[in-house]
Amino acid sequence: MNAHPALAARQHPVVQVSNLVRSFGRGPNILDGLDLTIRAGEFVALLGRSGSGKSTLLRTLAGLDTAPAGTVTVPAERAVVFQEPRLIPWKRVWANVALGLRTPDARERAIAALSEVGLSHRLEAWPLTLSGGEAQRAALARALVREPKLLLLDEPFAALDALTRLKTQGLVASLWRAHRPAVLLVTHDVDEALLLADRVLVLDQGRIGFDLHVNLERPRHHAQPAFATLRSRLLRELGVEEENPEEPVEELRAPTRSRAPAASSRRLEDAVWSASADALARS
Ligand SMILES: Nc1ncnc2c1ncn2[C@@H]1O[C@H](COP(=O)(O)OP(=O)(O)OP(=O)(O)O)[C@@H](O)[C@H]1O
């Protein structure tokens, strides 16, 4: 039996990277024969140690780095959101979102996109009067108004405070559900990757060293046992030792490496993650 047309369309590869190599100056290869396929509608998160080349890969897919060797196939309809919103300060919020749209209904499309991210009341505002979360939502609207087949997110939540980050993650989850672009999300946050993505990749020594299929129902919660199992696997891949809550207190105090957050900060982390699950469930 043939797959449903919508499903078949989603399975079609939109990103195909083969033998990608990139170095800077006379330095070592940061990307070193990297292969990657991302299918239509797939949400992929990319983890890796600092300096492993995550942003270099994202910039290559965005077409911002034209120097690498190898084969890169990406759709023309793609958009990027960075850690900082990069809005043009002398254009109103709606005009930032409409920027580059060539159709007569550009303003209407910008307004619709801003409404989707909850910014209908800030259409005429100047970017510098927006809060950090609002500015990042405007950046998301600017990306989505182009109806990209590929959405590239370079640590888009990293500069936001904890609660705004949770809300914005929930917003990205619901925008993705509504529009279904393929997404590549660069992040340092294992839990964020597992909350949002279908696949989590780990970049290591210039290649995709680990490719984890996240077979958890949505919305996800970090307290689910299966979530914790995947989290442990990813942390191991990243070379991070996990805290064992059953460990005796003396061992936690051992002056080796900082391994466990204090009990109170752990409780705070749990509370924040409960809020996260709620935010994602509501989104
Ligand atoms: N334009 C550049 N010129 C020289 N070196 C560069 C340039 N861009 C990146 N690099 C180097 O390439 C390596 C990979 O950088 P990249 O920003 O891709 O890593 P990353 O995994 O995104 O790091 P982080 O997680 O810290 O953001 C780093 O050693 C960086 O210094």
Descriptive overview:
The chain is of the alpha/beta class and about 280 residues long. It is about 40% helix and about 20% strand. A six-stranded mixed beta sheet has the order 5-6-7-3-8-9, sandwiched between helices. α4 packs across α5, α5 runs parallel beside α6 and α6 (about 160-180) runs parallel beside α10 (about 265-280). Residues about 245-283 have low confidence and may be disordered. The structure holds adenosine-5'-triphosphate (ATP). Adenosine-5'-triphosphate (ATP) binds near residues 24, 53 and 56.
Brief sketch in words of this structure:
The chain has ten helices and nine strands.
Order of helices and strands: HEEEHEEHHHEHEHEEHHH
The main sheet comes to: 6 strands, mixed
Counting DSSP E segments of at least 2 residues, the number of strands comes to: 9
Strand content: 15-25%
Low-pLDDT windows of residues: 245-283
* Rg on CA atoms, Å: 20 Å
CATH architecture annotation = 3-Layer(aba) Sandwich
Strand order of the largest sheet: 5-6-7-3-8-9
Oligomeric state? single chain
Q: Overall mean pLDDT score?
A: 85
GO molecular function, one term: ATP binding
Organism: Microvirga arabica
Pfam family, one: ABC_tran
Biased composition (Acidic residues): 240-249
Helix and strand topology:
Elements: H1 5-11, E1 13-23, E2 29-39, E3 43-48, H2 54-62, E4 69-73, E5 78-81, H3 93-98, H4 106-116, H5 132-144, E6 150-154, H6 162-179, E7 182-186, H7 190-196, E8 199-204, E9 207-213, H8 225-237, H9 249-253, H10 263-282
Parallel strand pairs: 3-7, 3-8, 5-6, 6-7
Antiparallel strand pairs: 1-2, 1-4, 8-9
Helix pairs in contact: 4-5, 5-6, 6-10
Bound molecules: adenosine-5'-triphosphate.
